[in-house]
Design a protein that fits this description.
2 helices, GLPGLI family protein, mainly beta, 268 residues, signal
Amino acid sequence: MRCVIFLLFLFCASFNAFAQSRSIAGSYASGPGSEICKLILSEDSTFSYSAPEYPMFYRLEKFEEKGHWILSGDTVVLNPLLALKPFVESELKEEKVNSDSVILTFRHIKRLIDANGNIVREDTEHINRLDFSFNNQAKKNRVRVTADRTVRCTFAGYIPKEIITGQTTIVLPRLVNKIECIYFGCWELQGMKKFVVADSSSNHYTFAVYSNYYVDGQLRQTKFLVKNENVLYTKRNSKGEFIKDNAWSGAAPGRLVRLGEKDMASGK
């Protein structure tokens, strides 16, 4: 009798999970028009994701990926079997050169990494805009290196002193005080990061920020919260909690809305 009850329990649980997966399966998009984030959850547990920018790099690069998805409670998980890995890394290298100046070199390096963790290709690009400061990250101490002068407007926020150049290396006068740490900030880092200087006699510093592209997938254990069968929440705060809104219809930032048959037929 216990065996029969157990088998009935497994059957009901499997049926409920299957029915829930079927109700969530469908096409979702983040907004009207063609340049939108689009997610297709197929009933065979495969997915297709496309967007006009890389979701992990915040860069305007067309992004497309396919994989597998599961429904875990109230959460859709894309590629649940892919291990979590860092997408953005950075480092500061120091050296002492024969110069009375301070030399800063900065690079953005894209790395293609295979399933075994081996770097199979590296492409070096220019960092379009870089902020830095020595020993103190207060706004008044910051300097910006950029190829184009920042446009001053109401929404521009604080604009530090700028060095207008397209070069990846700049030469600065030696500081009166020794350099104990350097703060760097760029679009790839999404903020300022502190690097402690190991050797105070160094005067050439090379800052590198790496964008990691993984051959086996960029969407790794990516989670979306299911509000209902028509809406998925996609963004989370610094605590890892999903950001919810009170909108009852239409698309809004941080959510994917199911597309109707009319939308799919029109290619939206």
